[in-house]
Structures are given as C-alpha cells and as structure tokens.
C-alpha cells in the first residue's frame, strides 16, 4: 500500500565523476542508521520546521498527505541553506494512522499512554513521506536541469499485540515512545508489541530505502553509485 506524488519523468543517469553528497534533513538516529546500513554516506542538517504548525495549515490533509507535507517542508528548509548547494537533500517524516486519524509524536506520557491503549490489539497504517530536492544545478551531458524535487509516501500496515496497562506504563516510562510517530517504533523496545507488518519494514522505521532508490532514479542517480565509490577507495 502507498501513495505517490510528484514523479516527473526520470532523467538519464548523469556522468558526474563522483556520487553526489546526500544531506538528511532529519536528526533521527534510526534514519541515519538505515542509510549507513544501505551503504549511503550522508551528512545531517536538521531543519527548524515546526511540525505542528505545518500540519495545522492543512487541516483537510489525509494522514499520508500530512506525512509528505512535513517531509517536503523539512527538505525545502534545509535545501534553502547555503550549505546545501550542490547536494541532494532528503526530508522524511512519519505519521501513524488509526481510525482515519493522523497521530504524530505524542511528546507527553499522558498522550502516549492514551494512544497505546487505543492501539492495543488493533491495526493501523504507518505513513512515511520522502521528499528529495536536487541542488546540483545542471548535470554534465544532461539536458535537464537538476534543480528539481520528487516525493513519495511509503505506507505499511502495522498490527499490535494486546498490551496490558502495566506494559504500557513500563514502555512509556522508558521515554522511547514520546518522540515517535504513533507512540511506537519497530526498531527499539516497541518492537515487542508488534505482531505483524504488512509492507516494507523500513517504512515503519522511518525511511524506505527502496522508495529512496526510486526517487534517486528520477534525479538520474543510482543508489549503487555509492557502493561502487566505496569499492574504488
């Protein structure tokens, strides 16, 4: 399952002498770890985007659309910085959907406990928005300007085990769910409460590598270019 947007025709793979520099517009250690495990070197520049303010400007957006709006806002904010010139900038954000409602980060123990109790024994959808901004300018031997952007939402169904109040209280007390979309994460302690994932598990972590591969292709970049560069060195 998933939603896709802003997919211009792919450009031909360019003849750049080296793979581009990728900037991740997120402070998420999990997203950094996913990129590292996928063999993609990157830098981190965190945006100052107010997630709640962005979402409030689009009250009629679906949970999937909200995830993409937030990812786009983060990517564009970082792409506008002088330090991003000549790079690719990736913004990501995740939103959990339960009963058609978008659930972002709870931030407080009270909200986290309430949400986890509502999710116990039920299923929802985790939407992760990806937005890639190309700041490289004009590529050599390529007629298409690379000042462009593409975006896509990857979605995965998530089924939770039944959690008793003591388990929920213990999980919230760890602090882990307070800054996670939907009040849980699959790659940490919260994984103990997930019984099934329908879709790309990386989506639930917060960055779908297969989705990123597709977005890079639209910018004329192969994910494997970084692998080849690492072997050459």
UniProtKB/TrEMBL annotation:
Q: Which reaction does it catalyse?
A: a 2'-deoxyribonucleoside 5'-triphosphate + H2O = a 2'-deoxyribonucleoside 5'-phosphate + diphosphate + H(+); a ribonucleoside 5'-triphosphate + H2O = a ribonucleoside 5'-phosphate + diphosphate + H(+)
Q: Does the keyword Glycoprotein apply?
A: no
Family matches, as Pfam families: Maf (PF02545)
- State its location(s): Cytoplasm
According to its UniProt record, this protein's enzyme class is hydrolase
Q: Which UniProt keywords apply?
A: Cytoplasm, Hydrolase, Nucleotide metabolism
Tell me which cofactor or cofactors this protein depends on.
Answer: a divalent metal cation
The EC number(s) attached to this protein equal 3.6.1.9
Q: Which residues form a coiled coil?
A: none
The family annotation for this protein states: Belongs to the Maf family.
Function comment = Nucleoside triphosphate pyrophosphatase. May have a dual role in cell division arrest and in preventing the incorporation of modified nucleotides into cellular nucleic acids.
List the protein's name: Nucleoside triphosphate pyrophosphatase
């Amino acid at each position: 399952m998933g939603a896709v947007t802003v997919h211009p025709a792919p450009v031909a793979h360019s003849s750049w002498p080296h793979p581009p520099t990728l900037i991740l517009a997120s402070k998420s250690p999990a997203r950094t770890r996913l990129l590292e495990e996928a063999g993609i070197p990157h830098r981190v520049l965190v945006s100052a985007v107010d997630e709640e303010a962005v979402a409030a400007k689009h009250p009629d957006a679906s949970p999937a659309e909200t995830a993409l709006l937030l990812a786009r806002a983060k990517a564009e904010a970082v792409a506008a910085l002088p330090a991003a010139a000549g790079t690719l900038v990736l913004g990501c954000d995740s939103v959990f959907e339960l009963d058609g409602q978008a659930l972002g980060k709870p931030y407080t123990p009270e909200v986290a406990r309430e949400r986890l109790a509502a999710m116990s024994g039920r299923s929802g959808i985790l939407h992760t928005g990806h937005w890639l901004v190309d700041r490289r300018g004009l590529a050599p031997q390529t007629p298409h300007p690379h000042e462009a952007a593409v975006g896509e939402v990857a979605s995965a169904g998530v089924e939770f085990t039944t959690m008793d109040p003591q388990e929920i209280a213990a999980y919230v007390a760890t602090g882990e769910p307070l800054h996670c979309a939907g009040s849980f994460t699959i790659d940490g302690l919260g994984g103990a409460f997930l019984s099934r994932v329908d879709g790309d598990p990386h989506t639930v972590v917060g960055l779908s590598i297969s989705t990123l591969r597709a977005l890079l292709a639209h910018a004329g970049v192969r994910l494997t270019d970084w692998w080849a560069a690492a072997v050459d060195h």
